[in-house]
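Reading a protein record of the kind used here takes only a little practice. Think of the row as the fold of the chain written in a discrete alphabet. With that in mind, consider the following protein and its fold in token form:
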Amino acid sequence: MIVRTVVLLLLILAPARITAVQDVTPADDYGIERVIVISLDGARPDAIWANTAPHMQGLAARGAVAWTASTVYPSVTLPAHASMLTGLSIAEHGLDHNDSLYPCPRIAAPTFLTITAAADQPTAMVVGKERLCQLAPEGIDYTFAREGDRSVVDRVIELLDADFTVIFAHFPNPDYFGHLTGWMSDIYLRELRRTDDQVGRLLAALDDRALTASTLIILTADHGGLGTTHGRDIPEDMLIPWMIAGPGVTPGVDLGALGVEISVADTAHTVLWALGLPTPESALGRPVVAAFASAAR
């Protein structure tokens, strides 16, 4: 009760309005012991379909998926990740640029990492782009993984062994090769396959440690791309994958077929809702309860 009171006070004092979600199912009921959010920078959903990503396809098959989820406009890294982590629209969280700034300023709006850390959950953030430091709350375990996707997974595995329970992992490589060779080029698809290999390493690490059954995983992206750029209000840039698997999630659910429209901002809401923590009151995001067997329908 003391922890929840501290969390609520933190959020009430934050710039974004916060409200407790009604009819929250506690995490203990689902058996969720840890949450991992994977963000694939610049991963188009149709690239995952293109026989390049068996591990991601397998994750989608054992959980719930939306292949036509939406990011925010402008469809670029920092604003989109700010919405992903805060659950808010750009107008609400205020981060509307995509610049690397030094010294690194911190976003004022609380992220789900802020909230889980305040609730005494060991919380970590591993990123492959240094500018994402602007979204890292003070006091959590933060790593800039300079060597790309493999180094991100190396650090995530270390965090699993150190009993961290909330981890955000950002994979930078798809975006790099999209800008370099063009989205959906042969090289982009080849490199996305290598990114998928690293997702597979992470999933195998969970299996090897007998953690899969107690781990909620959300995998999504910040934006897509067309040609060698992105940021526009066009489907190739705006559509992203969004999938969730783990305790309480109904396998094989096509959220699009259910008429559930998914936003990148739903990520933060869903993490907090699943853990029984307060979620932001937002014009954009909400928990994806349709993915969960006992909470949906």
Strands lie at 18-19, 34-40, 64-70, 123-127, 141-144, 166-171, 215-221, 239-245, 253-254, 279-280.
